[in-house]
Amino acid sequence: MSTNVERIILAGFGGQGILFLGKVLAQVGMMSGKHVSWIPSYGPEMRGGTANCTVVISDNPIASPLVTVPDTVIAMNKPSVAKFATRIKAGGMLMYNSSLIERQDFRDDVRLVEIPASEIADDLGNPRVANLVMAGAYVKYSKILDFDLVIKALPTLVPSNKKEMSEINRTAFEKGFNYAKEKKYMFGRYVYSVFKGMGN
Amino acid sequence: MADKILMKGNEAIGEAAILAGCRHYFGYPITPQSELPAYLAKRLPEVEGVFLQAESEIGAINMVYGAASTGARVMTSSSSPGVSLKQEGISYLAAAELPCVLVNVTRGGPGLGNIAPAQADYYQATRGGGHGDYRTLVFAPNSVQEMADLTIKAFDAADRFKSPVLILSDGVLGQMMEPVVLPDPVVFDPDTKEGTLTGKGSRKKRNLVTTIFLDADQLEEHNWHLYQKYQFVTDEFDHGSWKDYSCELHQTDDADIILVGYGIIARILKTVVEKCRKRGIKAGLIRPISLWPFPTRIISELSKKTKSMMVVEMSTGQMVDDVKLAVEGRIPVYFYGRTGGNIPSSFEILNEIDKIVRID
After folding, report:
1. Among A30, A43, A65, whose Cβ lies nearest the Cβ of B6?
2. By CA distance, what is A39's nearest residue in B?
3. How far is the alpha carbon of B105 from chain A, nearest alpha carbon, in Å?
4. CA dist., res. B113 & res. B111, Å (int)
5. Which of A35, A63, A65 sits opposite B176 (nearest CB)?
6. What are A31-44's pLDDT values in tens digits?
7. What residue ranges of chain B are covered by domains with CATH 3.40.50.970?
8. Fold exhibited by the domain B249-359
9. Of A30, A35, A63, the CB nearest to B270
10. Do B115 and A43 touch (CB under 8 A)?
11. Is the pLDDT of residue A196 over 80?
């Protein structure tokens, strides 16, 4: 990262745990001594449509927590790519759930990272932990958050009525991290036009 | 230092209210502030407090009147249309000089509008949205930390000035999570207040909390009394012990253009100031923390040193009136606004500044 601030937009279907994924990143950022902010989309689109949130992790106090041009977009479904990917800063990163989004031609100035998050989560027996697979991959690629700190934070973030999720959350996070470790990202050398037909 | 907790703005207000000694909350749900009553519904019973979801906003504000009459620290919250419903009660609270804290997590209006963030309730908040000659103190936090800190100060100010104090926030600040260091708990004893309705007991005369003054001279005397109190409050924020809560200045000393914005907009404007400075434009920022009393004196003084001001709001232009009154025509005051739940980006504000700098 060239600057000391990371602006992330996370997006997907309602129910994919987007807000929780953002909360994990913000919480771990805070525990690392950084300044953080987390803003959810709370509009009517939450019911059945896309959910998204904005996370900023910064070494300095955060002036505006609102993000127009993100450094990173984490997209869990197709409409999210259509909505947010064109805004990514040059040299930024698009990390997407390749189980639900096929490879697309894209801008050549953005790192593309494909993570089959839903498949990995299915293999673990719970499709709902795809968000934590993504968290693992993100922590590996972004290098701004510490692996061990996430492991420490995860159980504290799970609501008390979902304590049984702690174990599988951790496994999903590790799987995502390890998957990213073995895989090299690529620079998109594709054209934006292919995305245009994808609108939501 | 106490631990940092990641909290939503709405929840931070709730916890801070409890730390301030508030044990009574009356409200009615409405997005985007419902996390606040939800939080207090869970927390207040744990501290032997009363959480009550009233039958309506009108019911809730009148319950606030009742609780405040007994000396208790009491809070209600709502969002724009709900706050409109409470206005009659707020007028009564101001007339009876009852301390209480009101929260408006503003959304898009007029009418039912939408649930996205807005700042279009500025007039209603600062002019007193109800009837009669009265003012309401208004605090405008710009972070989750300030949502907590200013809640504590709001209870202090309410008791100090015997007045309703409004926290004017918006949908983003209410929904946003940021790290918070919770303030220390306040020791509050309702029995130290005078004139409260706690039963006549051994007192010779019963206490009376009323807003009816049928005699014209009597009501006029009451109105001038309120007026003098509001003058005193203004002095306190201008020069006195509350002046730290009047406004925040950022890089105004050498500024050619001073931006003015409150709440979440002030956060965006801080980014704009940084970007301006990188481009060689000497920009600064005035962030009113108290919207009433307004930092008129400071803005007036700065208008003698700078070349222009630009007010940015999530409205079609409300606070800009107060800035113009303070500037008294000395320099141009520009305005940029977005409404309907749209939040201006730093880029579009920069574009506006580029136009102004070219004009100047």
Report:
1. A30
2. B176
3. 13
4. 5
5. A65
6. 999 999 999 987 66
7. 5-211
8. Rossmann fold (3.40.50)
9. A63
10. yes
11. no
Beta-carbon separation of B115 and A44 below 8 A: yes
Q: Where in chain B is the domain with CATH 3.40.50.920?
A: 249-359
* Nearest CA-CA distance, residue A40 and chain B, Å: 7
Over the stretch B13-59, which tens digit does the pLDDT of each residue have? Answer: 999 999 999 999 999 999 999 999 999 999 999 999 999 999 999 99
Dump the DSSP string for B198-253.
Answer: S--TT-SS---------SHHHHHHHHHHHHHHHHHHHHHHHTSTTGGGTEEEES-T
Helix (H) or strand (E) holding B172: helix B171-175
Per residue in B3-16, pLDDT tens?
899 999 999 999 99
Q: How far is residue A77 from each of residues A52, A85, A101, A139, B127, measured CA to CA in Å?
A: 11, 12, 6, 20, 47
Q: Is the distance from CB of B117 to CB of B170 less than 8 angstroms? A: yes
Provide ipTM, 2 decimals.
0.92
pLDDT in tens, B180-223: 999 999 999 888 888 899 888 888 888 999 999 999 999 999 99
Q: What band does A120 get if pLDDT is binned at 50, 70 and 90?
A: very high
The answer as to CATH 3.40.50.970 being correct for domain B5-211 is yes
Contact of B347 with chain A, judged by CB distance below 8 Å, is answered with: yes
Nearest to A64 among B6, B115, B346 (CB): B346
